[in-house]
Design brief:
CATH superfamily of the largest domain: inorganic pyrophosphatase (n-terminal core)
Number of domains: 2
Structural class: alpha/beta
Number of strands: 13
Shape: globular
Order of helices and strands: HHEHEHEEEEHHHHHEEHEEHEEHE
CATH architecture of the largest domain: Alpha-Beta Complex
Distance between the termini: 81 Å
Largest sheet: 7 strands, mixed
Radius of gyration: 22 Å
Mean pLDDT: 85
Strand order of the largest sheet: 11-12-10-9-8-7-13
CATH topology of the largest domain: inorganic pyrophosphatase (n-terminal core)
Low-confidence stretches: 1-7, 364-371
CATH class of the largest domain: Alpha Beta
Number of helices: 12
Length: about 375
């Protein structure tokens, strides 16, 4: 195992001298063997693009072989299109056969102690690169920790690594990184940093725009519109909060997609969506309000009943419902909704635009024709 004194073979062989950031990465890379690159479960565009960028960096700068490994399905249309254009292969964690090997692993766009990253048994985490707000690192972890809370996207951080390493970004990967930065920052309408702007500006002239367009306008399956109808039928408004629920979620990506959609309603500054998926309740939250701290709020509301995490303006969580009856599940969901809406109402008490006194359906019932 390499140490942090820069004596790793990869670091020693690199000329000219590595930047401090690249030297820290080189110090945790193994002398031999393949490195696992692990994005968070059910990876989104930022996780996919960042993993691909790390694969390129390890190969071109350090001569290290790697494999992208993740847990969960990929069903959101844009994500499937990204994978189609990614020229690096990936492996589902459930199909990974490690045997007695204990490969080094780098976690991107998440932390392995968050409950949202599945690390294959036997893998050794040697580094974590993430842009989500972190309250603290795991006690005893001595690997690379590059945490940039407030940065719009992990893809921007990976752009910086590639830039410092002098690695040219191919047109297809530039398109993926661009899309990741755009989606994470909502086209720079929410929190971002100068690094995000620099990355986007530098990657734009290099990107394959045809690939970027194909990702942005990926064809949607018919099932998407059925779920969209269900979400609208269940949607509620209360002041500047909009929320809805899905009764049977097969693919978890739809939950944050619906939360995103609700966030575009006029005057709405908070939105969230819940959904049943087997023995789990999924919840995704969005806010356009400065200093929203969605991740902290969702962790507070869920507490020990599940896990949650995210950014200042977006968050996701899940609760284990194993053994609960349908009535108990619904009672739990309603309690979560009341807690969230109540907290947001208190927070907005001094706002110039007070909350309504009661919730109402987002979609009004159709007007019946006169007899």
């Amino acid at each position: 195992m390499a140490n942090g004194n820069g004596k790793n073979g990869h670091a020693a062989a690199a000329k000219p001298a590595l930047s401090p950031r690249l030297a820290a990465l080189a110090a945790v890379l193994p002398e031999q063997g393949r490195v696992l690159i692990i994005p968070h479960d059910y990876p989104d565009p930022d996780a996919f693009a960042s993993a691909a960028a790390m694969h390129l960096l390890l190969k071109e700068k350090f001569g290290v072989r790697s494999r992208i490994v993740f847990t969960g399905m990929v069903n959101r249309a844009e994500n499937r299109e990204m994978i189609r254009h990614c020229r690096y292969g990936f492996t589902f964690a459930t199909r990974l056969q490690l045997g007695r090997k204990r490969p080094a692993a780098l976690v991107l766009d998440g932390v392995p102690w968050s409950g949202r990253v599945t690390v294959p048994t036997g893998a050794r985490i040697v580094g974590v690169i993430d842009h989500h707000p972190q309250t603290r690192a795991k006690k005893g972890f001595e690997g690379l920790m590059d945490f940039r809370p407030g940065t719009g996207a992990t893809a921007s951080i990976m752009y910086e690594y590639l830039k410092e390493a002098g690695v040219a970004v191919p047109a297809w990967l530039a398109a993926l990184l661009l899309y990741a930065i755009a989606t994470e920052t909502m086209d720079f309408s929410r929190r971002f940093t100068p690094l995000d702007l620099e990355a986007y500006s530098a990657l734009l002239p290099r990107a394959n725009m045809k690939i970027l367009g194909a990702i942005r306008h990926a064809a949607l399956p018919r099932s998407y519109f059925a779920l969209l109808r269900e979400a609208m039928d269940h949607a509620q408004l209360y002041g500047r909060v909009a929320w809805t629920h899905l009764d049977a979620v097969e693919h978890p990506e739809i939950v944050p997609e619906i939360a995103d959609l609700l966030s575009h309603i006029e005057r709405v500054t908070w939105s969230f969506c819940t959904g049943w998926r087997g023995d789990e309740m999924l919840i995704s939250m969005r806010s356009s309000q400065p200093g929203a701290r969605c991740g902290r709020l969702l962790r507070t509301v869920i507490g020990a009943r599940g896990t949650a995490g995210g950014h200042f303006n977006m968050a996701a969580g899940q609760l284990d419902l194993t053994g609960k009856t349908p009535a108990e599940r619904e009672e739990l969901r309603e309690g979560i909704v009341r807690s969230l809406v109540g907290w947001l109402e208190r927070r907005s008490a001094d706002s110039e635009e007070p909350f309504d006194t009661q919730s109402h359906p987002l979609v009004a019932p159709p007007i019946k024709p006169a007899p």
